[in-house]
Amino acid sequence: MTHAAIIKSVPGMNNSTFSSDDDRWQAVLRRDATADGAFFFSVATTGVYCRPSCGARQPRRENVAFHHTPADAEAAGFRPCKRCKPNETPAWTARENLVARACRFIEAAETTPVLADIAAQAGLSPYHFHRIFKEITGITPKAYAASHRTKNVKGRLKHSSTVTEAIYDAGYNANSRFYETATGVLGMTPKEYRAGAKGQHIHYGIQKCSLGFLLVAATGRGICAIQLGDNEDTLLDELRAEFPAAQLLPANETLDSWLVSVLSLVEDGKPTRQTLPLDIRGTAFQQQVWQALQDIPAGETATYAEVATAIGKPKAVRAVANACANNRLAVAIPCHRVVRSDGSLSGYRWGVGRKRKLLAREVSAREASE
Ligand SMILES: [Zn+2]
Fold first, then answer.
1. For the domain with range 196-259, which CATH number is right: 3.40.710.10, 3.30.160.70, 3.60.40.10, 3.30.565.10?
2. 8 A C-beta contact, residue 226 and residue 216
3. Of the residues 81, 84, 324, 335, which is catalytic?
């Protein structure tokens, strides 16, 4: 999964501001939560107004009007829906969506937009918008725009690393959220992350495999841990240590299907048909390295130096090795495909024996398909 692919799949990306009534109506029809905060809709027959994602029965098009803000809807004589509570402070997701849309707006602009314009497309006052943007990203809209401008000409992939760098430069490391911006489903705040995933629900499953035991765990956003180990208890203890404040729950159906996919990555050595959503947490640098690892094809290897060069930091070989060692998503982020310059396997968080087997399986899976 490349960043380019994620960015491309942002719902509403082509109409990033839901700028026509047609776009808005389509968003209402699909109860698009990524549109929350972008606009509100009112229903003439009931006299209420809603967020786009409202779960209530859908109105007929001819009875619907669109509004930029709750205040606009109320000025037009509508009252807030009791179900989706459109007048209350937007939930984190709505604010994150709003910020994500603002970022796309800034990126798409030919010349750097001024704060008032960015805030206006978000339907907020400059002051309010500035506060939310800073709260979510840790940097100001101006800093984001400036950082984007300098890299403007580089391709789509670079484009998302710009987001990273902007946030990284601001000294803001727990920015995994910004990769999720891309998926339209943003997750926990850096504050929550530092608090050990307080209040988060994490489903996990453990399965015996040919390399011992395999643990897969996921938040609402995607897979947050894939670990290999010799026994179930140790794997579970490690998960608890990593997310001390989260509520750990047994596997649900979604998790089970991911567990099966990861298991087949381990056992068959070839990519699964299912795209696994990854809830990746790490510093901007680690995320860059982990992204580069996902670009190494199955059955091939790269050296730490090659990965360092691939991310544009040829001297950061040791730091690349550290990032590999800190990978928490075994197999899905294939740090097992990285070797020393002399071709030797070097270390593996989950044991060199496992690394050797994983590589051997990938090589034979590739040869079998050729
Ligand atoms: Zn509603």
1. 3.30.160.70
2. yes
3. 335
- To the question of domain 1-187 being in CATH 3.40.10.10, the answer is yes
The pLDDT tens digits for 12-49 are 333 346 778 998 999 999 888 777 777 899 999 999 99
Q: Using pLDDT thresholds of 50, 70 and 90, give the confidence band for residue 90.
A: low
Q: How far is the CA of 201 from the centre of ligand 1 (A)?
A: 26
Q: Considering only the top CATH level, what class is 284-369?
A: mainly alpha
Q: What are phi and psi of 20, to 5 degrees?
A: -115, 155
Residue 62 alpha carbon to ligand 1 centre in Å: 17
Tokens of 10: 């942002």
50 annotated active-site: yes
Q: Where in the chain is the domain with CATH 3.30.160.70?
A: 196-259
List C-alpha distances in Å: 128 to 80, 87, 134, 145, 341.
21, 15, 10, 18, 52
pLDDT of 8 higher than 50: no
| Average pLDDT for the chain | 76
The whole-number average pLDDT for the span 287-306 is 87
Annotated catalytic, 324? no
pLDDT at 192: 46
pTM: 0.49
